[in-house]
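From the shared-data thread, chain only:
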Amino acid sequence: MKKLLILLVGVIAAIVALCMTGPLIGLAFSALLIYLGMHYYVKAKSVFTKVLWVVIGLIGVFSAISNVPALVGLAALILLYVLYKKWNNEEVSFSTLKVKENDPFTNFENEWAKLTK
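Structure, as tokens:
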């Protein structure tokens, strides 16, 4: 029954993600415009080019605001990822840092407490 529920929710999430492909592409393009505007604004030397890159960045911001439905598509993609991990009985973790328990450099305070006793 649990696998059937995961499959059903996965199919619905896949349909939602496919329906939101257009807004997702628009949001990615908006993010690219914002990034380019900020990146080249910092590198620009003249006032005209700074104004030009600010205008391009603002176009990207307004375009991103108009693509707010893409957030539903992003949520559907994340849900698909989580369901895929659950289907394969794997642990779902969004953090990339994995701390070693016995590493004295990451657990310096524990090691220092052992040394000062």
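The mean pLDDT is 87.
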